[in-house]
Amino acid sequence: MVSGSAASKNLLFTGDELEALPKNEKQLFSVYDDHEQKESRHIEEGTGVPLSDFLEQAGVVDADEVKLRSVDGFESVVSELHSRRYYFPGLVEGDETGREVREPLVSFYKNGKKAKFYPHPTIMFGQQGLEDKNKDFFAKGARYLQAGNRDRAFWVKGDRLACSRYFGVDQVFALNEEGEDAVPLLEITAAKGDSGCLTPETAASVAEEGYVAPGVRLGRCFWEKELGISPLPETGFFVVSGSGDEIPLNPKAENYLFFTGKDLKTVGFYDGEQIVEDFAGVRAGEILTADVPKEIRVPSEKTEGEFYIRVIQNEKETACYYYSLEELQREYADLLTEEEYLYYNHNMNQGKGGMRRVTGRGFPVTGLLNLLPEIPNPEFIESGALLFQVFTNDAYKEKLAADGNELGVYRFILAYEQDQRTETGMEKGDTSAWADEELHFVPIRGNTPFRIYCGKSSANPAVYKNVEGMKVILL
């Protein structure tokens, strides 16, 4: 799927459609990797379709960066999309002569063989210079490409949830109960003249050519695992339209999400009987307004620190707060918490991949933000009224600004100590094995005393090493 605020229309490709694409472009790429201090320089051949073909088809006119997400949860962000990138035939020897301009390639083959996760492609990028570590941007098994910020789809709010949820268009197919790697496309069809349940605009489209919309079933997995509502009741849930009208919803019944227009920018809701095209969200229980006095607490240091939070309003920096580890431990001790995370790391087991469990000790990012004068209340963060971007000292994982709702949903923590373990306890960096029930915290070691952990599925989005700060953009 290709989506995002910079796209005039979103694109959705099935596996068969990807197979049918004319993959005529064959290019050599110089690839430089320096991940986990293991340096490699080599040449790879890709075969596929120029990325510009997809962007042009989606109507993307001016996007300076794209966000990629793979079938295994890996995320990468490529900035300066319009800058020149090159193929250096002499990369291995450190020779920059003979360089050739390289445009990004959506590649289905690597060195003549089907790419990993085929038919999902690998998106390949050239180097901006001989020392540019471009391997950081390659996304094997790319499933989603986001140009600009996320397209909002719907929300779920209410006292049955730990926090409000806001879902993007790019997340819809990950919500089916078969799991993200097996997405059956639901076709919701209306015959010509059958327009009683449709909006006037869609009814007019139906009159011309019928109405078929891809969608997915919302099963128990969505309510119980994604939203954490268990046991699952049959009452107390309501579908809310854009105008504020509500209809009762039984989460145990057959419920569906589907795309309401050909641009794939908005979704509708269908419960087997009623269609809600201007679908805004779901009320799960009562929506309560917390009446808690606003507390403001900012660090004393004004010009330097070991972690910073920059606040951006109307494209200008209005504040920058500098935190030291010592002051955090002294003045923010009431926020101190421990969070456990489990994620897939493709570098483990000699590159075969494996699961790592980490317990981080530190400070919830939402806790720090809620104490700033610019953040009026917790709902401000949950509603996505801000975007955020994490910055690292080594620039490895500078990210496209993400929806603030993710901060609470995925439990972002600024950790200064960690217990890191695998099943065997034999991996580099382990402090204990899973069978060892005692926690063995050690200080974070790196270019900075902090890491940010979050509850995502793979190492790339779950761990930010060498964290030095974050930018918060108020919308």
Give a structural overview.
By secondary structure, the protein is mainly β. Strands 24, 25, 28, 29, 30, 31 and 32 form a 7-stranded mixed β-sheet that branches. Strands 2, 3, 8, 9 and 10 form a 5-stranded antiparallel β-sheet that branches. A hairpin with a 4-residue loop joins β19 (267-270) and β20 (275-276). The protein is globular. 37% of the residues are buried. Residues 191-198 have low confidence and may be disordered.
Question: In a nutshell, what does this entry contain?
Answer:
The protein is mainly beta. The protein is built from ten helices and 33 strands.
Q: What key phrases describe this protein's structure?
A:
seven-stranded mixed beta sheet, 475 residues, mainly beta, five-stranded antiparallel beta sheet
Helix content: 10-25%
Q: How confident is the prediction overall: mean pLDDT? A: 88
How many DSSP-defined strands? 33
Low-confidence stretches are 191-198
Gyration radius (Cα, Å) is: 24 Å
What profile does the largest beta sheet have?
A: 7 strands, mixed
- Which class do the helix and strand fractions yield? mainly beta
Bulk shape? globular
- Proportion of strand residues: 35-45%
> Helix count?
10
Compute the separation of the termini in Å.
Answer: 26 Å
Present the secondary structure layout.
Elements: E1 2-3, H1 15-20, E2 25-35, E3 38-50, H2 51-57, E4 66-70, E5 75-78, E6 86-87, E7 100-101, E8 105-110, E9 113-114, E10 122-124, E11 142-147, E12 152-157, E13 165-168, E14 186-190, H3 200-209, E15 211-218, H4 220-226, E16 237-241, E17 246-249, E18 255-259, E19 267-270, E20 275-276, E21 279-284, E22 307-313, E23 316-323, H5 325-331, E24 337-345, H6 348-351, E25 354-364, H7 365-370, H8 378-382, E26 386-392, E27 402-403, H9 405-409, E28 413-422, E29 432-433, E30 442-443, E31 451-453, H10 459-462, E32 463-464, E33 467-474
Parallel strand pairs: 1-11, 12-21, 22-33, 28-29
Antiparallel strand pairs: 2-3, 3-8, 4-5, 4-11, 6-7, 8-9, 8-10, 12-13, 14-15, 15-18, 16-17, 16-21, 18-19, 19-20, 22-23, 24-25, 25-28, 26-27, 26-33, 28-30, 28-31, 31-32
